[in-house]
Amino acid sequence: MTRTAQTQLSRLLFPSIAAILLSFPAAAAERGETPAKADDLRAITATPADIAEGRRVSETCARCHGANGISATKGIPHIAGQRPAYLYNKLRAYQTGERSDPVMGGAVKFLSEDALVKVAAYYSSLEPAQPLPSATKVPPARPDPVAAGKAAAAACGGCHGEDGVSKTPGMPSLAGLDPKYFVVAMKGYADGHRKNDMMKSLATPLTDADLNNLALYYGLQKPRRAETPAAGDPAAGKKAAADCAGCHGEQGVSGNPANPSIAGQDAEYFVAALKAYKDGSRSEGTMKNAVAKLDETAMKNLAAFYAAQQPQPPKVARPLSTAAWVQRCDRCHGVSGNSTDPRTPALAAQRADYLDKVLHAYQSGARKDSVMAAMSSTLTDADIAGLAAYYARQRARAFVYVAVPCK
Ligand code: HEC
Ligand code: HEC
Ligand code: HEC
Ligand code: HEC
Q1: Ligand 2: residues whose CB is within 6 Å?
Q2: Scanning 1, 237, 293, 299, which has the fewest C-beta atoms within 10 Å of its C-beta?
Q3: Among 88, 92, 109, 77, which Cα is nearest to 44's?
Q4: Distance 377 CA to ligand 3 centre (A)
């Protein structure tokens, strides 16, 4: 955009914004909302003169963020047209270390409060980047992992029950196993941690993607008690089970994926597993102490007690398509990522590599934000890649202030 066009835009935009703003905190208070802190919104009350000064400050930013706030560098965001109060708040956050990034921390270290306000106002007044032609191709829809898991499970139903609930003594139920535990167990057979020739030959050729699909499918099947007999004395088993509750839960329903749920499990398999931990043919160490003192009768009693307990589904969410995620994200980030709240970042046409990087950073806690930590916690790598590509190909709209706070 030319300089004149830019100045025109600022003239058009900023005085009217200032007018809206003056009435905004009062209006918000009337509606019973907490009005935004005054300094949250300072950057959008800028005058054309402020913006011109912000442009001078921006000379130190251009080598990374591009001449017009449009980045040509992997991992560095476009900041042209980004929402003004968001820009200002994040510049402050880099300065105080609340958002830690060594590069940005250094870039804003010596800037005054006033300079931050103005440089934020300058970048938000610019025309945003538009999607690169290479980013606009819509990728083919991802195959549904649950359907893929179901198809792969056709090879398992003969032993483990069609819906993962065992009907054959000695065969474990798989329905309702936590997916993380499921994957660890399968890898145990493949690498010899768990000795079982049949399961080794079945597990070895499966890829990580196959395992995840199978784990997801079985995790989503409604668990029921195995339809197999139990020989032991459940009342005696109940007493002994006090030693197991700390890890497996009072009723054999564990909240922790590292410790499997054992409620409703086939009793014969249950005893075989305990023996395997005792004789070392399952070399996973956690169970070693728990089984050391148990004889065959004690094992059968425990098996009978747990077989009679009601299994519960683990916390497994059916994965969402990118389109379904986008509906959730757009509630705050605006339609197609064009935020209408000056404090919430726009995502439209942002660099995909940057979006991908920061979504992982929210997920790992490397970038701290309680809202985004919660929103990103269940995203898979594939979800993140899909969302990053989606927002990168949306048309970006320049900032126009509409007084709709998002909290
Ligand atoms: C040496 C390269 C470099 C320089 C110089 C630099 N930045 Fe950055 N900037 C980055 C990187 C890298 C990130 C991403 C950091 C992260 O992941 O939090 C970033 C992030 C930002 C963000 C956060 C964007 C968002 O969407 O959350 C803003 C705002 C920003 N920079 C503004 C500026 C301003 C204003 C200047 C000049 C005063 C500047 N930067 C100078 C590299 C730089
Ligand atoms: C021929 C029968 C048979 C087939 C087919 C079979 N399994 Fe198994 N599976 C077993 C037996 C027996 C065990 C118990 C092995 C042991 O004692 O560790 C087992 C154990 C498991 C376990 C461990 C369960 C737990 O609670 O720790 C998982 C997971 C599993 N199988 C998944 C599968 C999957 C997935 C398939 C299909 C790809 C499959 N199995 C096919 C017989 C079979
Ligand atoms: C310190 C925690 C801990 C205690 C105490 C404990 N367990 Fe476990 N248990 C585990 C873990 C972890 C595993 C998974 C090991 C693996 O990956 O093979 C496991 C696995 C099992 C399995 C195999 C489940 C399956 O699906 O294959 C059974 C059965 C079992 N435990 C029963 C018991 C019983 C009975 C007791 C009490 C006498 C007990 N455990 C005490 C942690 C514990
Ligand atoms: C409840 C409101 C809300 C929802 C829903 C939400 N976000 Fe956010 N998002 C925010 C806020 C607030 C920030 C600024 C956080 C910060 O200061 O780091 C943010 C920041 C981001 C950023 C960083 C942008 C930048 O320029 O650095 C990305 C990327 C992002 N969100 C993506 C998403 C995606 C993808 C979803 C849906 C899975 C989502 N958000 C859902 C409120 C939300």
Answers
A1: 155-156, 158-160, 170-172, 174, 177, 182, 185-186, 194, 196, 198-199, 202, 214, 260, 269, 272-273, 276
A2: 293
A3: 88
A4: 27
pLDDT of residue 39: 59
Least distant ligand from the CA of 175: 2
**How far does residue 247's CA lie from ligand 3's centre (Å)?**
7
Q: Distance between CA 18 and CA 47 in Å, rounded? A: 9
218 CA to centre of own chain: 21
Distance from Cα 86 to the centre of ligand 2, integer Å: 52
**Both tokens of residue 22?**
């003056």
Separation between Cα atoms, residue 61 and residue 52, nearest integer Å:
15
Please, what sign has the CA dihedral across residues 325, 327, 332, 338? positive
Cα–Cα distance measured from residue 231 to residue 233, given in angstroms and rounded to the nearest whole number: 7
Ligand nearest to the CA of 203: 2
Q: Kindly report the CA angle at 236 between 231 and 242, in degrees rounded to 5?
A: 120
Taking a C-beta distance cutoff of 8 angstroms, is the pair 314, 176 a contact?
yes
pLDDT, residue 277, reads 97
**CA dist., res. 391 & res. 352, Å (int):** 7
- The closest residue, in CA terms, to atom 8 on ligand 1 is 104
> How far apart (Å, rounded) are the C-alpha atoms in residues 9 and 3?
10
Which ligand approaches the C-alpha of residue 216 most closely? 2
Q: How far is CA 201 from the centre of its chain?
A: 33
Question: Is residue 404's pLDDT more than 50?
Answer: no
Residue 29 CB less than 6 A away from ligand 4: no
259 alpha carbon to ligand 3 midpoint, in Å?
6
How far is the centre of ligand 1, averaged over its atoms, from the C-alpha of 260 (Å)?
45
* Closest residue by Cα to residue 142 from 356, 325, 378: 325
Which ligand 1 atom is the nearest neighbour of the CA of 99?
18
pLDDT digits (tens, 9 = 90+) for 345-373: 999 999 999 999 999 999 999 999 999 99
Cα–Cα dist 145/214, whole Å: 8
